Amino acid sequence: MLEASPLTDGWILRHEGEALAASVPGCVHTDLLAAGVIPDPFVGRGEHEVAWVGRRGWTYETELPDVPSGHEQTDLVFEGLDTAAEILLDGRLLGSVRNMHRSYRFDVTGASGRLTVRFASAYAEAEAVRGRLGERPAAYAEPYQYLRKMACSFGWDWGPTLVTAGIWRPVRLERWSTARIARVRPLVTVEQGVGVVELRVEVERTRVEAGLTVTARVGGAEARARVEGTSAVVRLEVPGARLWWPRGYGEQPLYDVELTLDQESGALDSWRRRIGFRTVGLDRRPDAHGTGFTLVVNGERLFARGVNWIPDDAFPSRVTRERYRERLRQAAGAGVDLVRVWGGGIYESEDFYDACDELGLLVWQDFPFACAAYPEEQPLRGEVEAEARENVVRLMPHPSLVLWNGNNENLWGFRDWGWEGRLAGDSWGEGYYLGVLPRVVAELDPTRPYTAGSPWSGSWVHHPNDPAHGTHHSWEVWNRRDYAEYRSEVPRFVAEFGWQAPPAYATLRRALPGEELVPDSPGMRHRQKADDGDGKLARGLARHFAPPEGDFDRWHYLTQVNQARAVAAGIEHWRSHWPVCAGTVVWQLNDCWPVTSWAAIDGDGREKPLYHELRRLYADRLLTLQVRGEGLVSAAVNQSAEPWTGVLRLRRMSVDGAVLGTAELELAAGARAVGVTRVPGELEPSGAKEFLVADAEGPRALYFPVADREIPYPRPEFEVTVAPGSVTVTARTLVRDLLLQADRLGPDVRADRGLVTLLPGERVTIGVTGWETPDADAARAALYCLEPSR
After folding, report:
1. Rounded distance, CA 83 to CA 456, Å?
2. Tens-place pLDDT, residues 653-693
3. Local structure of 498: helix, strand or coil
């Protein structure tokens, strides 16, 4: 039977003539940090102090043991090398590599001695390729498009420039005889209620003449097939297989599949994975509104409640199984049912997709291409196809994976960002997105849909970012307009949109120790990576609030409010237009370090108010008030499997608490449908002092007809009481957008809700964890809400 043993101990990193202890998996930065050679790049402006690391070559070494095994072959297997490296054994070259997104296998049978992995600087490798193939345009000046490496290592508009190198995924020795399982492609389908698994198996042999069979088992079914040459196909049927569903639509049953490779004398190798039985499709049919983009799982058409995912750490080797699960549980807790793995990052580890399988989170997987023109010549072209083939097969078992996407924004960039003229006919990636990648997916994984890019209208007949066709990225709002402009169009699927806010207060205090916090302090400016990001934040605030001059705490609170309000404006509008709009994917769920960004969860894992707002916006039942035509409507968005019926209670109120008019109307929204009710004209608020409240046995919607800066809010009055595990606030006046910033009570304190608006006499209890000494005065000091304009 094949024997595998990890090769993780005894590694060293060569630095300035010294041998530093190295962790494998890991990277140069984390090893240098552990050795005290560099400062923490996440603290202060340490990022600049370690820039030299990415410009140098690095060498890792260990001893390859001489362990007699009785097997015919021994392979040295690297699951991930970052990025351009030579592998040597006692000075003999085993091979050269140049792709972070692939694994590598070397025959080391009968060998032992000094194992050396010598990494070139990623800059040097990229610049050499650029010198051979010519300049290509990109959104950023760094040369990330010239090698197959995590693009955001070179920095992004939310990320630090920390150009890594190292053995970033596990390495092991495999010892085997006669034959081993080289690759298994599981094609999982459902045919007339029967779960079907077709395992396409490839083997590697040391003995061509040996008779081999493969045996597979799943869900009580068993099948066997003979290996012909180096391949075999085993088909299993599971009658009555339970369907795997995305969260909110059903359960997530998972089945263990086991495959063994046998000869007459016994088993030689085995392969085990978990699968789920479901069907997935993408409805892109043209209709009266343009061209749709609707995910269909098990025949059920879905409105995708999504978030974009970036690498959860600038050093991906630090992201553990537990950290993946924590972050993805946070996503599920916010009502998310789709996670898009963005194309400037990586193909994530099995731990990520395992967690998504279990949590019912659909995965949209980008191939790693983002915001640049990518050359299609060698040495890149062969690497692109090799990595695509490996990762398509690697990720196929996961039922959560429902969509392959060719790139992020490159088709749009070619059309709108001045690339076409600058390229003058040079290759730029179109051959990957419309040629290589769809061919690989069609050949290897025909059970899943592929789309050429995001955004993409489906063909060059329409503009790549045409909101009426396919996927759309809505960035004009953040870049140039007020977020109310989200309501001006109804895209078919909004794959990116978002609004910035700084991280939590405790995160800033940890990242900027000793610095006086002001919006434009050196440390805060260093944590604003977006072009004119601070200007966009300021202009966005000024449209809605009086400037909080000289008051950092107020600025911090208001930018958090504005982020949540902006995302709410988009999602409420777009969800209310289901099924024309079939999904929203917020940019972004997470951060990779402490930074001002579009994330709902900051770089220290703390939840911003936006996170809690997503729980409301992505709930199965959402109530919203929208301006349509000449007046107001109430839209009851029902994504549950049961009809939503009841009474819609409307109150026209003044900001001083007076009720100016009421009505009770019938509320009716079918299963997976939207019910729209016209608001009586006499209840529509008029002027700055009035607003409308809509209640529907739980969900509530508010409508204020003017910007907050024009509303004469009363000075908020409320009472605060505390108990172990909770803070209760009772309003005596209108209290708008009340927020307990729990991390101000202590860095480990968390609250279970974000922004809440209370009418006079209403009460809210906020759950609090990690607070060992509850104190009402401290709680009051950590509570923020809107106040009268000064």
Report:
1. 30
2. 999 999 999 999 999 999 999 999 999 999 999 999 999 99
3. coil
User: Are 163 and 154 within 8 A, CB to CB?
Assistant: yes
Q: What is the pLDDT of residues 263-291, one digit of tens each?
A: 988 999 999 999 999 999 999 999 999 99
Which DSSP helix (H) or strand (E) runs through 413? helix 410-416
**Structure tokens that stand for 37 in this block:** 């050679």
Give yes or no for a cis peptide into 161 (omega within 30° of 0): no
Cα three-residue angle 695-651-719, rounded to 5 degrees: 75
7 and 171 Cβ atoms separated by less than 8 Å: yes
Q: How far is CA 554 from CA 455, 598, 707, 769, in A?
A: 36, 19, 18, 24
- Give the span between the Cα atoms of 343 and 760, in whole angstroms: 48
Pairing label, strands 718-723, 73-78: unpaired
User: Catalytic residue positions?
Assistant: 409
Q: What's the CA gap between 367 and 386, in Å, rounded?
A: 12
**Could you tell me the CA-to-CA distances from 527 to 149, 160, 290, 533 in Å, in that order?**
24, 9, 40, 10
- The set of residues, in sequence order, having a beta carbon less than 8 Å from that of 132 and lying 6+ positions away, is none
CA nearest 33: which of 242, 314, 261? 314
Show the tokens assigned to 690.
Answer: 């009035």
Supply the pTM of this predicted model: 0.97
Question: For residue 630, what are its two tokens?
Answer: 């000449």
- Residue 359 and residue 332: Cα distance in Å, rounded? 7
Please give the torsion angle defined by the CA atoms of residues 627, 629, 630 and 636, in that order, rounded to the nearest 10 degrees: -40
